[in-house]
């Protein structure tokens, strides 16, 4: 019968159906937007290996690689109306230590630098202080898609993460490369990473590898002069 | 009034109907579980450690098969830690080795430090088997109901009461 409960149920059911269909259409619209990311330059500028401890209370000493790099990339085509944020990251990759046939530690991958680039529609969600937030919002005021977002130009960038290896050794490691990756976070739909091959309107990220390089030997720790002793 | 109580045949039919809805939902959940090879193919985000990508209450679809490639650095994974019952959604930032023995390190995009502190005592890395699935799909906000229900237990009671009343009072 047509009781008010049934009407309420029908209304809610119709609402959820419409909401999901609209969400599916928005998610599918990602495929129609061409993606043509490009990398102009990715190279290391300064390499250093130091000895250190994983945390303050640890007695274990490990080797840490500090890889400075320069990067020029244009990822602005990844921003569409359904893009919430772009996660850009650079990994260092190197083959197995000693190259033993056991297959263990055959490939090593570690993020040395990453960055979250929010779409103007998601600026209010960014984890920033009030001044930086105001600046970020002003940089794209009134725009739903900002063509400047996703244009990266880093010169002699310090790594955010100093990388080590479970064996504790990274010094004089050969055949290390840097690789640029991205991850597009949608407002609704499928998460996408840089794909290995061209896919319809999405071109693969070319030239996103640096030249192979060798990490240097350990740098002797320069004793800092004790400044203000407490 | 309370027609279902006076008519046992109708009451039985209603009970069957209710059971059918429950079992359909359960079968769909388990079916998804089999397809994605994950014990929990849909999860609700409970913390803000992956903001701004994921907020509390967002729904994530997981995939736990390595058909094309292994679980790699950059993927967002849901993992369990021994001795802790709440699964964590974070991004893989380091991977040493290949296959099931690979050592994985995770970090929340919004956290300053990596997850070593969150792991079990003496555990420095995750193994592939700790991972429940990688995030492949995202639906915002839909899961917020479950957070409301778990944080305000009276809502659960109220909801169950209303549902019970509807079942009993519904004529057809």
From TrEMBL, chain A:
Its main location: endoplasmic reticulum. InterPro entries: SPC3 (IPR007653). The keyword Membrane applies. One of its GO terms (cellular component) is signal peptidase complex. It is a single-pass type II membrane protein. Keywords: Endoplasmic reticulum, Membrane, Signal-anchor, Transmembrane, Transmembrane helix. It is found in: Endoplasmic reticulum membrane. GO terms for biological process: protein targeting to ER; signal peptide processing. The chain crosses the membrane at residues 12-33. It comes from the Eukaryota. The keyword Ion transport does not apply. Essential component of the signal peptidase complex (SPC) which catalyzes the cleavage of N-terminal signal sequences from nascent proteins as they are translocated into the lumen of the endoplasmic reticulum. Essential for the SPC catalytic activity, possibly by stabilizing and positioning the active center of the complex close to the lumenal surface. Essential for viability. Belongs to the SPCS3 family. This is Signal peptidase subunit 3. It comes from Chaetomidium leptoderma. The lineage of its organism: Eukaryota, Fungi, Dikarya, Ascomycota, Pezizomycotina.
Automatic annotation (TrEMBL), chain B:
It is an enzyme of class 3 (hydrolase). GO terms for cellular component: signal peptidase complex. GO terms for molecular function: serine-type endopeptidase activity; signal peptidase activity. Gene3D superfamilies: Umud Fragment, subunit A. InterPro entries: LexA/Signal_pep-like_sf (IPR036286), Pept_S26A_signal_pept_1_Ser-AS (IPR019756), Peptidase_S26 (IPR019533), Peptidase_S26B (IPR001733). It is a single-pass type II membrane protein. Keywords: Endoplasmic reticulum, Hydrolase, Membrane, Protease, Signal-anchor, Transmembrane, Transmembrane helix. SUPFAM superfamilies: LexA/Signal peptidase. Its EC number is 3.4.21.89. The keyword DNA repair does not apply. It catalyses: Cleavage of hydrophobic, N-terminal signal or leader sequences from secreted and periplasmic proteins. Component of the signal peptidase complex (SPC) composed of a catalytic subunit SEC11 and three accessory subunits SPC1, SPC2 and SPC3. The complex induces a local thinning of the ER membrane which is used to measure the length of the signal peptide (SP) h-region of protein substrates. This ensures the selectivity of the complex towards h-regions shorter than 18-20 amino acids. SPC associates with the translocon complex. Catalytic component of the signal peptidase complex (SPC) which catalyzes the cleavage of N-terminal signal sequences from nascent proteins as they are translocated into the lumen of the endoplasmic reticulum. Specifically cleaves N-terminal signal peptides that contain a hydrophobic alpha-helix (h-region) shorter than 18-20 amino acids. This is Signal peptidase complex catalytic subunit SEC11. It comes from Chaetomidium leptoderma. The lineage of its organism: Eukaryota, Fungi, Dikarya, Ascomycota, Pezizomycotina.
């Amino acid at each position: 019968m047509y009781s008010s409960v049934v009407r309420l149920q029908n209304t809610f059911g119709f609402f959820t159906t419409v909401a999901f269909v609209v969400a599916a259409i928005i998610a599918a619209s990602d495929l129609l937007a061409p993606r043509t990311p490009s990398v102009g330059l990715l190279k290391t500028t300064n390499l250093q290996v130091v000895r250190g401890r994983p945390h303050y209370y640890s007695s274990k000493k490990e080797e840490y690689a500090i890889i400075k790099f320069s990067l020029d990339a244009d990822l602005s085509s990844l921003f569409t109306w359904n893009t919430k944020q772009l996660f850009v990251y650079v990994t260092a990759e190197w083959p197995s230590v000693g190259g033993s046939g056991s297959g263990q530690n055959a490939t090593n991958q570690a993020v040395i630098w990453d960055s979250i680039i929010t779409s103007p529609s998601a600026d209010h969600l960014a984890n920033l202080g009030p001044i930086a937030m105001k600046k970020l919002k002003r940089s794209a005021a009134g725009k739903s898609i900002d063509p400047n977002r996703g244009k990266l130009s880093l010169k002699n960038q310090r790594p955010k993460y100093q990388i080590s290896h479970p064996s504790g050794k990274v010094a004089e490691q050969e055949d290390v490369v840097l690789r640029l990756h991205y991850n597009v976070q949608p407002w609704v739909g499928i998460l996408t990473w840089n794909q290995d091959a061209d896919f319809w309107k999405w071109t693969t990220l070319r030239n996103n590898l640096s030249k192979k390089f060798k990490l240097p030997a350990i740098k002797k720790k320069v004793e800092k002069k004790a400044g203000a002793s407490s | 009034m309370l027609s279902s109580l006076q008519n046992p045949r109708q009451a039985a039919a209603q009970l069957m109907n209710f059971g059918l809805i429950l079992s359909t939902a359960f079968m769909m959940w388990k079916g998804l579980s089999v397809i994605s090879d994950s014990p929990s193919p849909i999860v609700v985000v409970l913390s803000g450690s992956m903001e701004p990508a994921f907020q509390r209450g967002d729904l994530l679809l997981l995939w736990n098969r390595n058909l094309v490639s292994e679980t790699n650095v950059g993927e967002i994974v849901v993992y369990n830690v021994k001795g802790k019952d709440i699964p964590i959604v974070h991004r893989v930032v380091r991977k040493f080795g290949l296959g099931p023995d690979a050592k994985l390190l995770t970090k929340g995009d919004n956290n300053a430090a990596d997850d070593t502190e969150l792991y079990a005592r003496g555990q420095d890395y995750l193994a592939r088997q700790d991972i429940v699935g990688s995030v492949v799909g995202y639906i915002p906000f839909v899961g917020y109901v479950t957070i409301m229900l778990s944080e305000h237990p009276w809502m659960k009671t109220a909801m169950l009461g209303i549902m019970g009343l509807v079942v009993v009072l519904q004529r057809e």
